[in-house]
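Appendix B, example 12.
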Amino acid sequence: MTALLRAELLKLGSTRLPIWLFLGTLAMVAVTVALSVPQVDAQDVPLTLDDPRLLGVVVGESLGVPQVLAVLLGVLVSTQEHRYGTA
């Protein structure tokens, strides 16, 4: 079991796709947070860090991006296993 896990981690670490998906995830989360924070409060009231509405909007909007890219990584890994007959 340990050898299998080590082999899978080696496979994911030796290709460039997971690295680019990880960097893309970080970039998309940063863009989502940067776009959603100014829209939380349209009035001229200053935003505080302990505002539960701000936390809800930022987490709610930026949570979908990593999930989509994680599903994409899972699909790509699975299809590559079947393509090369290693599944």
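DSSP finds four helices and no strands in the chain. Helices lie at 2-14, 17-40, 52-62, 64-83.
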